[in-house]
């Protein structure tokens, strides 16, 4: 009947907040034959994934992927660490901090909100203050890379405060892992989760998580069972640990994808990868500023993986994004929540963080803005200047 | 460094309880470029998935995939339909019925267990009795195809009973969807979930679910929010419905896989597909019986997709399975829970339900049993006889 029809989604350049483009090697790895979840080969794959996740998380803790997208990692982290009725200090300075609050509430916990403007990090004093407000506070949850605002959360002071109270630090690294240093051990992070579809250049579908021994002990000592069976970290550990108990049928093909993505990270080297992200974002910002656009986040707090730029007064948000997609095949993101209609979100994540993409995007945006009657300068020369200074191939 | 190393999982013949082999077309579809979750192309893909899921679920209800494996579908169904403290009648005649009980308990509900031997279906009288035991009972949950025992649950009488009490019927169709008729509308099923890695011949990673309008209304009218944000069906519907709100980054590549798998089902035709599953299972059983092995389930209640056969006294369970895997590349399943060490589970699911696989498996099992010193006859002739009677290509 329709067997001659083949399946051809278009090739987009995904420069939004994620998913970003998956590496071709990763896509090919996914098309390998499925094996069973106790196959000896599977056990080797799992061991490799664990080792490489430890590398990108900067940790010696157990690390494995939750079988769902980033939000499942958030829910697994909060629902396993928190007991019903327990206070948890949550940094809310964007859409995903607020999502943490909602998820914690559904888990029956009591969020103690530390708020900041959407575009600013949470201050160390706010964390200190949360401990003063809540005598029994044992858990602090923060978003390392706020995908809705483009803010990188500094952790140097905060982790000292959390440690001094002998509390647990929970970190959302969805948009930082693989693009920014995520230093689980150095920053005393007890539970850190991420996604695969951002700076790791794999498709969405898994949530890597790193679990400290004291977190595992705390979960084992829970008074109430974790409300989610599917996201119960102790059951995950029975499959990922030495016991090898069946928990659920894992998404085998995504394990292949994640492994290949992590191997690419290892081949490049973490420092080289971070430098690449930093440099390309610097070029993007130089270009956008040369065009006359304004950054939403102050230089000290900008993510390398995701840049928020204010939408010019004269521009029609939806029309510009539609033109970028239809005329150039480029997807960027609009604003979320408080930033809806106010910013564009431009991701340079994983393999997408390269001079060719930055220069193409700047050119495309310039042409689209001009076609829409929005006055702007040219950005490519300023971007290129950054590359030349750094001696990059562009 | 290691970029010349390529990724080569072995090609196994997965004749266990799942995952089964994914169709090659499905694996190729997965390697297509990732698109964004609001891409116009994505919206077309989602519309096609909905239509084809309605076809295999036999329903006009809304149908979409949950972003997790089958167990996430189970949890989504129970956690959304049940309020804390509410009674729910659950058929426990195997590992997955018992898992339903655990998941319902974690959701704060109060399971009213209807038990049957592992290898027997739940009787209609037990359902009638549950309504007598619990005056306020509004939800009955059953496993349509018990993957741990190989039993198909009859629904004719039971759905009349549930309907007569104006209650909700929740059905686990993980191992039946795409291999057996799953008649959501005819059987008045209010909430039905499945997985992709069994008779649909896609990789594990999604849980298709069909939600009746009265279920959706009940969920909207909940007194307590669903405890899981990730598995909140109302939030899924906002993305899958006309609103198109962001809930989480969906596993795009698995949407490609599911769509291609469903297109293959449509091309073959449902009835032809069911006939194929029935016929190949009949040949498998004829062969196993000719070898002198005993079926665990009575003929009237056997699944076509998964056959449980008793392990001969003289056979070493693990050794036989290991030899099948290492010498023939064939994976079959051992027993779970009450059937651990007592049965083998042989799946003929989706594309794997074909004469070549049945005949190869019977030959391989015969040789392995003989090598292990277990006396047995030959099964291929009896299997072939079934095919000849049916005029099949074998």
Q: Oligomerization state of this entry?
A: homodimer
* Strand order, sheet with most strands of chain A: 2-10-9-8-5-3-4
Strand proportion of chain A: 5-15%
Question: What is the CATH topology assignment of the largest domain in chain A?
Answer: Aspartate Aminotransferase, domain 2
**Helix/strand/pairing category of chain A:** alpha/beta
Largest sheet of chain A: 7 strands, mixed
Shape of chain A: globular
Task: Kindly report the name of the CATH homologous superfamily of the largest domain in chain A.
Answer: Type I PLP-dependent aspartate aminotransferase-like (Major domain)
Number of beta-strand segments of chain A: 13
**Percent helix of chain A:** 40-55%
Could you characterize what this model shows?
Two copies of one chain form a homodimer. Chain A is an alpha/beta fold and 394 residues long. Chain A has two domains: 24-267, 3-Layer(aba) Sandwich (Aspartate Aminotransferase, domain 2), CATH 3.40.640.10; 270-390, Aspartate Aminotransferase, domain 1. Helix content of chain A is 41%, strand content 13%. The first copy, chain A, is built from 13 helices and 13 strands. Chain A has helices at 24-30, 40-57, 70-81, 95-106, 124-133, 156-164, 213-220, 233-240, 252-268, 270-290, 317-328, 355-371, 380-390; strands at residues 13-14, 62-66, 87-92, 110-115, 139-143, 145-146, 151-152, 168-172, 191-193, 207-211, 306-310, 330-331, 343-347. In chain A, the strands form four sheets. A seven-stranded mixed β-sheet of chain A has the order 2-10-9-8-5-3-4, sandwiched between helices. In chain A, strand 3, helix 4 and strand 4 form a beta-alpha-beta unit. In chain A, helix 11 crosses helix 12 and helix 12 packs antiparallel against helix 13 (380-390). The radius of gyration of chain A is 21 Å and the shape is globular. The model of chain A has no long low-confidence stretch (mean pLDDT 96). At the A-B interface, helix 1, helix 3, helix 4 and helix 9 of A face helix 1, helix 3, helix 4 and helix 9 of B.
């Amino acid at each position: 009947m329709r067997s001659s029809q083949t399946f051809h989604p278009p090739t987009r350049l995904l420069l939004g907040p994620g998913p970003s483009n998956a590496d071709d090697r990763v896509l090919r790895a996914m098309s390998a034959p499925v094996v069973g979840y106790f196959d000896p080969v599977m056990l080797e794959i799992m061991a490799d994934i664990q080792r490489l996740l430890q590398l990108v998380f900067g940790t010696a803790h157990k690390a494995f992927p939750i079988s769902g997208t980033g939000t499942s990692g958030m829910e697994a982290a909060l629902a396993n660490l928190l007991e019903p009725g327990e206070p948890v200090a949550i940094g809310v300075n964007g859409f995903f901090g607020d999502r943490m609050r909602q998820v914690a509430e559904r888990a029956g916990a009591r969020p103690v909100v530390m708020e900041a403007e959407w575009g600013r990090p949470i201050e160390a004093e706010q964390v200190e203050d949360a401990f003063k407000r809540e005598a029994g506070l044992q858990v602090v949850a923060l978003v390392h890379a706020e995908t809705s605002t483009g803010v990188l959360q500094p952790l140097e002071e905060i982790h000292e405060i959390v440690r001094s109270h002998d509390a647990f630090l929970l970190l959302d690294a969805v948009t930082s892992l693989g693009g920014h240093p995520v230093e689980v051990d150095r920053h005393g992070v007890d539970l850190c989760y991420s996604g695969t579809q951002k700076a790791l250049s794999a498709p969405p579908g898994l949530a890597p998580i790193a679990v400290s021994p004291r977190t595992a002990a705390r979960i084992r000592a829970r008074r109430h069972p974790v409300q989610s069976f599917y996201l119960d970290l102790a059951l995950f550990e029975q499959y990922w640990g030495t016991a090898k108990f069946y928990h659920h049928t894992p998404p085998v093909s995504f394990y292949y994808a994640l492994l290949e993505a992590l191997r690419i990270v290892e081949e490049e080297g973490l420092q080289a990868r971070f430098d690449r992200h930093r440099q390309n974002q610097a070029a993007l910002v130089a270009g956008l500023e040369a065009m006359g656009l304004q950054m939403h986040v102050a230089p000290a707090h900008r993510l390398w993986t995701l840049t928020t730029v204010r939408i010019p007064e004269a521009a029609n948000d939806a029309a510009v994004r539609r033109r970028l997609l239809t005329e150039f095949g480029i997807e960027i993101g609009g604003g979320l929540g408080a930033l809806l209609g106010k910013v564009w979100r431009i991701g340079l994540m994983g393999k997408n963080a390269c001079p060719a993409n930055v220069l193409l995007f700047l050119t495309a945006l310039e042409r689209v803005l001009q076609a829409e009657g929005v006055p702007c300068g040219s950005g490519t020369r300023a971007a290129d200047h950054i590359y030349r200074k750094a001696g990059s191939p562009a």
